[in-house]
Amino acid sequence: VVIMETLIMEKENISPQYLTSPEMAEILRISDRTLKRHVAKGLPVVRLGRSLRFIKKDVMDWLEKKYSNKS
């Protein structure tokens, strides 16, 4: 699914913005350690060797889906 979305974005000349762990943690206002806990729970991530990269839209969609049903 992620590959198809990336191909569509490339076709439309829109490239996803890949963020590092510190950048994503700063956007979410959480620690890097908490971010890694979310990754262990299924937060979408692109692994490049030992490095992690995040697509902001995918992360925001996942968080909304995960926490929107809870009151």
Sum this structure up briefly.
The chain has four helices and three strands. The protein is of the alpha+beta class.
The secondary-structure element order is HEHHEEH
Overall mean pLDDT score?
A: 83
Radius of gyration: 13 Å
Please give the oligomerization state of what you see: single chain
Amino-to-carboxy terminus distance: 29 Å
Largest sheet: 3 strands, antiparallel
Low-confidence stretches: none
Number of helices: 4
Q: Give the amount of beta strand, in percent.
A: 15-25%
Query: What is the number of beta strands?
Result: 3
Shape: globular
Structural class: alpha+beta
Strand order of the largest sheet: 1-3-2
The percent of residues in helical segments reads 40-55%
Which descriptors would you attach to this protein?
71 residues, 3-stranded antiparallel β-sheet, 15% strand, single chain, 4 helices, globular, 55% helix, alpha+beta
Secondary-structure blueprint of this entry?
Blueprint: H1 2-11, E1 18-20, H2 21-28, H3 32-40, E2 46-48, E3 51-55, H4 56-67
Antiparallel strand pairs: 1-3, 2-3
Helix pairs in contact: 2-3
Structural features, described:
By secondary structure, the protein is α+β, with helices and mostly antiparallel strands. The chain has a three-stranded antiparallel beta sheet with strand order 1-3-2. Helix 2 packs across helix 3. The longest helix has 12 residues.
